[in-house]
């Protein structure tokens, strides 16, 4: 496939640009940086395979407008003209916008897809470099070199990536993912086994428990049995002493029963009791008789004084009163002294208050009830009233002072005017007025700037604001119409130019050919031909004749060979020479005739050709004339169209605006529309701003006036400043008013307070006056003459107190008098009773004074002695009487006991009491033996075994044998116990084993973990297998490719390499590399000895390696050519680092390929075009210049 | 009368294919199969069913841990304590299991004979259950044909482990035809073996596979559980009750809807979110496959690890989602080089690959000869790496070729300009 024409209609920086790539040879697309060279190169792929969904080439033309086109020519020379749009549906169209199926294009592209095209048929400098480097990396490995050079795909990278990724998964003896996972999986599997419980194991555990239970039961029986025997024999052993004692007791019992009579139990007791009573009675009476004798002797020795006993009570009473009478005597003396002092004191007090009056008169000091309290109360009231009065007076003075100062302060306050008007003005300022002004100023500035920018952007600097709105705008349809008309004219002109160029070219070629023909030799004549033919025919006749003669001769000679002698050899030789000469002449004649005939034929065809050429030249010359006319018409139409177009913009031109290109007219209109919009916005902003400023000026004037009312004159004109001043003023007025109000309130408050305290003072003065009245009444009622004029509360209160004191003293005198009289009475009574006693009992007188108290004491002592003697006599008499009664009683008891004993002896039937005692002793002994026997038998019964059984068993054993047997049994028990314990332990163990078997999911959990590990491993292993298989496939593919293509590709590459290196290398050779055994690529230098070692890739310069890669890459393309699958070869600056010599070589190589592949070489080196023109034959180098793109 | 029909418990068989990764909700998935059985018993107790029918494969065939049996026994004991009888037949797995042979179960569990069909009658509730278990793993006889005729006056249930006439992914054991089952005159056939719920016939008689209790791998997707049968006289109704603890889903992303990898990831995430919504709040294991022709084909293959990680990270933001596997199974959006592939690089690769792939024996030798696979085959079971499986080998090989094509094709020259 070839691209005869590439239309960069609307793509990247291009607009309506076409590249004619149809001519044979090498096409160079050249342009400096920013000329859109890369864009043009990229556009090729975009045209063929669709514009990228997310294209970045929309910086001039919007996505929806992006468009490419091309005239394609397939392998058979069939054309397909396409247009590629940037859209989802029907992106591929014919020029008339009818959709073309992609499949149709794919056929033209020989089924080469975007990727293959990009990788195989496009190459840039970087790729060339990378290819050369890959050759080095592969150390010339032929398979790899061949494979690598097929396309831009870096197989080495893929191989490395495969190896690296595979190595991340597994390495022999490594710790990679698969290695580790396998190890972990093994562990988990072991864990599963470890936790797994085999069904058999459970049965075994159950059976072990059953067996252990049985064994445990059996051993328990054994132990029980041996223990029972041990216990039985142990009982026997323990009972042996009791059995012996029992036998002894039984013998003793029998012996006692045989020695004499026995008595009943009652007799034993009665004998004991009677003998005891008899003994006790006799002992007691003896003792009592001795005591009686002593008591009677005491009685006889005791005498009693009855006088004292007769007056005992009187003496006791007197003796009891002695100390009280002594005290009364002392009391009497003290009372007399006290009485005297008290009376004197009271009289003195009374004399102070009411002189001349006696304390003995109670009236003299009597006070009315509650008088003292009344006076005390009045005195307290007075204190309170006086305090209140002085406080009230003080308050009045203070409040008067305060009121005075408040009034003075109020008088000092200034007066102020009314600020309400100013406040109203402030309120009338619209909110945000200043901000609005600022905003509109900004808006105005912005729109002005925008307008300036729009003007600059669209070249409308000359257009004023009014013009922007006013300027006529040609309708877009009209513009489109004009544009279509101009485009059509241009297309026609181009087509016309093509036609004219074609015609001129054809005319030129024909004229040249005609000239050659005209310069040619004159043609031979018919006569010449005829003469030549005659010569030929004559010679033929001669030759024929000679031939016939020879034939006859030959027949003759063969006849002669049998019949006779042959022609001589000399004749034969002569004949032969003649014949040869004739034949030669004939051949020449034939050739000459043929040549003449040919020339005539050729000349005839040349004549025809000349005629045709002449006709053609004539026709083309005529056509050229007609074309010149046509051209004139076209030029005229073009002028008209241009004039019409210019007419549309007359008013614009008047303003100095250049008439736009039709393509740019839309943009210009957009500009004017934009400008008009911005200008409109700007005007609106200016209008609003004007209104706002007017309002502001009015407010400023009013503020000045109002502020002047307050005496404030200011030069400020800014509204914001004036409102600030007004605000300050309004605030100051308000503050002053507030201060005056406060002062007035304060004065009012002080006056009210003063009123209050004055009222308080009046109330206090009235209360004091009231008190005076009451006090006077009280004094009057008291009737104290000496104090009639004295109203002093203090002295009056003291007098009242004195009277009260006199009263209290009078009471004390009365009390002292009463006590004195009581003491005197008591002493008199004592003395009278003493005198009476002494006179009656002993007819004597009492002693005087204190001696009479000693007299009473002596008598009292004598009374005590008489009473003690009387009591002793009474005691002894009673004791003697009691002893006599006891002796009598003891004698009676002894007699009764003796009678009882006699009765017992008689009853038992023994001779006397002694015999009775023996029988009783025997009976007791028998009873004790019986008791002991019962005790022993009781013990035997307690052993738990029937006594008879014990006796029977004891009969089988001697103690020694039994001890030995018991010893043995103890050992047996011990053994049985140990066996039993062991079985118990075992049972516990096996039960534990069984109990430990639960329904837990440990094994299942380990299996779950193993399963997860398997999953992970499977993923990695699959990936590992994939990577390894991919590696194998790639390697095999490389090998196969090498096998199949090594020879043809290397052969072709060798030629290309030689050409590219300008003959410095002549051959490519492959050698098997000793170490790896794989073939490697080397190159032989020109003129090198065949025996010298060829140059390995590693030894080549970088540039040479690049050329080798290029040679291999270009050689590979032959495969595509062989399969009729060629595409344009798009090369981008691949000669960037080549010197001129190599570049020429490259251009020649490319030119040599250009008939098979369309070659398009993009470059930014200007001189490459010149180089190509000189290096390549005439007409084989086509340079397409791209101008620098300017965004403006 | 209420009956609960379940099958294919496969107690203690692990969930497969869930490789662990940081953030995977492993704890939520642990012991899921056991918990599903507990759910079954809970349901039986809650619904106060009259009997539980287990149609085979209580255990996993080659699983030997007797504790699994003890666990099953303990669950049956719970039913016994509630007076609920259990009828069970041995399936192919049970026949293989050694647990079956050794385990003693509570006396409420009746295990049907494996020698011949047997009928057990529950006179108190008027229920007759006919059944026969598998004596060996591969029973190829038509067991149903020998089942007895229905008992008059009873609700007749046939308990059978069978593949019927065959089903995908299940061995055709105890084969029989639906007509064979109808001919017995029963009211309900409680079947087991097929792991997907399937009502073969919805009355006269009912023939039902309840499916397994808990999905265990990516092919057992959707809700799993048991069938609750209510008999009102002779009229039977059934309803499926979900008892699974975790759920499986397969999200297939249509690659043709994705212009690039980001879009493909977006579609996959959307699919996962939908699957989560469909899982009724259960933890979810999800497999994501990118299928069909796609513009993102090469990237999906080449950046597989990154894509898997990103999807797992995205799933980590949802609750309890385990991304089991991310599989790229896309093709090129268009195959521009297909026709001309005989000359092009990719064409050569495909040709070489085709030559290798066609020779199955050579491919097997090639794969078996990979050094990293030594020891793997013996260690990893058939659920993981199936070196012995020709299909597995072919699939992995095809994927290897796709991977290679993606790597070779994707290095440079993106975009249709290709030379930019």
UniProtKB/TrEMBL annotation, chain A:
Pfam families the UniProt entry points to: AAA_27 (PF13514)
Coiled coil: 178-229, 268-298, 325-352, 740-774, 866-900
Residue ranges, annotated region (Disordered): 543-579, 1080-1100
Low complexity bias locations: 552-563
Keyword Metal-binding on entry: no
Keyword entries, A-Z: Coiled coil
SUPFAM superfamilies: P-loop containing nucleoside triphosphate hydrolases
Gene3D superfamilies: P-loop containing nucleotide triphosphate hydrolases (3.40.50.300)
Keyword Coiled coil recorded: yes
Residue ranges occupied by any YhaN AAA domain in the UniProt entry: 1-201
Protein name as catalogued: AAA family ATPase
Organism in which the protein naturally occurs: Streptodolium elevatio
From TrEMBL, chain B:
Keyword flag Hydrolase: yes
Taxonomy, superkingdom: Bacteria
Enzyme class (EC, first level): hydrolase
Calcineurin-like phosphoesterase domain boundaries: 1-196
Pfam family, one: Metallophos
EC code: 3.1.-.-
Keywords associated with the record: Exonuclease, Hydrolase, Nuclease
Protein name: DNA repair exonuclease
Organism this protein belongs to: Streptodolium elevatio
Signal peptide region: none
